[in-house]
C-alpha cells in the first residue's frame, strides 16, 4: 500500500491534532481555562488576553507546512523511508524535510532502560578521524530482553566506559566485553561478573548481540539519513535505540503524536 493511501482529510487532521493536543476540549495552556473563544484560526482566552493556536502551544510552534505534509513526513520518518524518497513523496524542499526529521527526533518522550542479567558491551566508531568528525558510540545490550542503550563519547578510555556501565547496567549483572584495557577491573570495583572474548582473534561468541546492534545501526543510518554530521549522532542514536526499546511510539503517526504532543504555555 502506498504511503499516500489513507491520509486523512485536512479537516480530519485538524480534529486529530486538536484532540491530541488539548484532549476533549480546547483550553488555555496558561491558566487552564476552558472558557475560550475562537477567532479565525486562533483561540483567545478572555482571562489571559493572549491568542494561541493548535500548533503554537507545542513543539509544532512556527509550523509553516500543512497538516497533511506533516502527517506524510511523520509516516516517512516512522517507516525509515530514505531522505531522498521522502522529498519525492512530500514535494517539500530538502531543508524542510531535514528540519522536520530533526524536530521529530528531538520531541518524542523516551527513557533508556536499566540493563540487567547478561549484558554485552562494546564500542563502535563513526565519522572520520582525519577530518576531526570521529565519534565513539558506547553500547550495551541485555541479551535475553533484547533491550540496549547507546551513548556517544569523545574518548575510548576507562573513565568513559566505567561511567557508561554504572549509569546503565545494574550491579551484579554479568557483563561480556572484548579484552580492551578500558574494561579491566569492572568486576573487582563495581561488582559485575566480567566475561571476555578476544576480538583481535575474531572470537565474538559472548558479544555477538552487540555486534548485531552495530550492524543494524549502520544500516539504519545509511538507509534513512545517508550520512549524519557529528553533532547529530546523539539524537540519531537515541532514535535508533527507541525504535527497538519502545516500538509503540513508531507504530503510526497518531501513536507518535500522542506520545509527543502536549499543550504548554508559550513564553
What is the helix tally?
9
SSE arrangement, N to C: HEEEHHHEEEHEHEHHH
How would you characterize the largest beta sheet?
Answer: 5 strands, mixed
Question: How are the strands of the biggest sheet laid out side by side?
Answer: 6-5-4-7-8
Amino- and carboxy-terminal Cα gap = 42 Å
- Provide the residue-averaged pLDDT: 83
**β-strand number:** 8
Rg from alpha-carbon coordinates: 22 Å
Binned, the helix content reads 25-40%
Uncertain residue segments: none
| Structure class | alpha/beta
Beta content = 15-25%
Write down the overall geometry. elongated
Q: In terms of quaternary structure, what is this? A: single chain
Question: How is this fold's topology laid out?
Answer:
Blueprint: H1 10-22, E1 37-39, E2 42-44, E3 51-52, H2 67-78, H3 83-90, H4 94-107, E4 118-126, E5 135-142, E6 147-153, H5 158-168, E7 174-178, H6 186-190, E8 193-197, H7 208-225, H8 233-245, H9 253-260
Parallel strand pairs: 4-7, 7-8
Antiparallel strand pairs: 1-2, 2-3, 4-5, 5-6
Helix pairs in contact: 2-4
Account of the 3D structure:
The chain is α/β, with parallel strands linked by helices. Helix content is 38%, strand content 16%. It contains nine helices and eight strands. It has helices at residues 10-22, 67-78, 83-90, 94-107, 158-168, 186-190, 208-225, 233-245, 253-260, and strands at 37-39, 42-44, 51-52, 118-126, 135-142, 147-153, 174-178, 193-197. It is elongated.
